[in-house]
Amino acid sequence: MRLKIKMLAMAVGILFFVLVAQSKTEAAVKDFQVFTQTWNTMEVMVGDTGYLRPQTENLKDPLGQPVQIASWVYSSNDPSVVSVDGNGYYQALRLGSCEVIIQGYSSSGMLLFSATCTIQVSVDMSGVTLEKNILTGYLCGESQFSENIQIHSSYVLNEENSEFTYSSTNPDMSVGCSLKDNVLIIESSSEGKTVLSVTINGKVFEIPVTITRLEISKRSYVGSKGRTFRLKIKGTGEKVVWSSSNSKVVKAAGNGIVRMRRNGNAVITANVAGHKLGCAISVISPKLLKVVKRAKYIGKNWKYSQPKRMQKGYYDCSSLVWRTYGQIGKKFGMANYAPVAADLAKWCKKHGKVLTKSYTRQHIQKMKFRPGDLMFETGQDNGRYKGIYHVEMFVGYAVAYYDEKGKPVLNELWAARPEGCYGGGHLMERP
C-alpha cells in the first residue's frame, strides 16, 4: 500500500513538473474582473486567453433595486489585436492595443451595465534568440549581398505584428534589414564593416556585419593557342574551385592557371564559398590577335577626328578598322586610303560572310562572335550600301555577373566604345 502511495506521489510530482515547464513556454490563461464606471486596463502577452468577467455585485438599477442581467454584449474595436466572443472569452492575437466594450441588458432591453476595458498586448521576447549573431559575406560583380538569420521564437514575428526598427553604425555602408516570419533578411549593396542594431518589440540585437568585395584579376582575355596566364581572386583566403565552360578551348588548373588549347570562346568560373566570378576568354590566331590588340590601343589612346582620320594619332571608325587589318595585309580593296564604313561592309559581304543581320543579347550570351568581327549600323538615307554610316570592331567578351541560376551574364567589348554598348540590333560581318 505504501509503495502504491509512493508511486502515485512520484507520478503527481512528474505531472506537476511537466505542467510548470509547459507554463513557461505556452500562452497563459488569465481571467479579469471588469467593473462598471471604472477605468479598466489589463496587460497581456500575445497568445494569452481568458474571460472578461463583469462584476455585478451591489449593482442596482436607477430605482435602487438589484439588477438582473439577461444578456451580455462584448465587442472589440480591433479584433485583429484581441478577439472576444459573446461569452467574454478573449484571445490576444498580436502586438497592439484595443478596447473591449462590455454591456449588460435586462430582459426588457434596458442597459444596466456598461464598461470599457483597454487591453495592451505585448510579446514575450525574453526567450527569443538569433540563430547567429555575427554576419560575414561577400559581394560579387553587380550582385547584392543577402543573408537570412533565423529567429528562435514560439511566436511568429514579422513587420506586420511587431514593433521593428534597425540602424547601422556605418553611414557610408548601405545595409537594409527586414523581418518576415521569424527571419531577419539582411541585404547590402556595398562592402565594409558595421554593427546592425535590430530592435524587435523592445528587445535589441547587436549584429556585427563584415562584407568583402570579391574581385577576379581579369573579366576578359583574348589570346592565342598555347598561351597561359593566371587568374587570381582578391578579397578572400578561402578555397577557389575553377571550372571551364568548354575545356577543349580553355582549361583552368586548381591554382588559377589558364591554358588556351584551341580557337574558340569559353568562360572560366571561380567558385568561392558559393559565390561565382568569371573571365570570358577568346582564343584566336596570332594574326587576328595582332589586329585586335592594335585596334584596342588606337581606340584608347588616339583621338577621334574625321578630318584627320588618316593622320597618325587620329582615327575615325572605318580608318581604325582599315589600319589594324592592314597590319596583316588586308586592305579592303584600297591600299593607301581607308574606305568608308559602307564600303567595308560591301567588301566583307563579297569576300567573307554575314554573321547576322541583327545581333541580339542571345548571340552574346552564346558567344557566337570572335574578336575582330565587325558591327555595322544601317538604316541611314545616305545613298550608300544598306545605308551604313558606322562600323565598330568587336574585341571580346567580359563577364558582368552571374544570374540567379548561376550562369554568367556577358557584355560585348568594342575597340572604341564602352563595355556593353549597343546591346544588339545591328549587322555583324567577319572580314
Folded structure, characterized:
This protein has 431 residues and is mainly β. It is built from 5 helices and 31 strands.
Features:
431 residues, 5-stranded mixed beta sheet, 5-stranded antiparallel beta sheet, disordered N terminus
Sequence-ordered SSE layout with sheet pairings:
Layout lengths: L1 H22 L8 E3 L5 E6 L3 E6 L16 E6 L5 E3 L4 E4 L3 E10 L5 E12 L6 E2 L4 E6 L4 E8 L11 E5 L6 E6 L2 E6 L3 E9 L2 E14 L3 E4 L4 E3 L2 E2 L6 E4 L5 E3 L4 E4 L3 E9 L2 E9 L2 H16 L1 E2 L9 E2 L1 H10 L14 H11 L1 E4 L4 H5 L8 E4 L12 E13 L5 E7 L12 E4 L1
Parallel strand pairs: 1-3, 2-8, 10-16, 17-24, 25-26
Antiparallel strand pairs: 3-6, 4-7, 5-6, 7-8, 9-11, 11-14, 12-15, 13-14, 15-16, 16-19, 18-22, 20-23, 21-22, 23-24, 27-31, 28-29, 28-31, 29-30
Helix pairs in contact: 2-3
- Rg calculated over all Cα atoms: 38 Å
**Given the C-alpha coordinates, what overall shape results?**
elongated
The residue fraction in helices comes out at 10-25%
Tell me the β content: 35-45%
How would you state the average pLDDT, rounded?
Answer: 91
Can you count the beta strands?
31
Largest pleated sheet: 5 strands, mixed
Kindly report how far apart the N and C termini lie: 107 Å
Taking pLDDT < 50 over at least 5 consecutive residues as the criterion, the unreliable ranges are 1-25
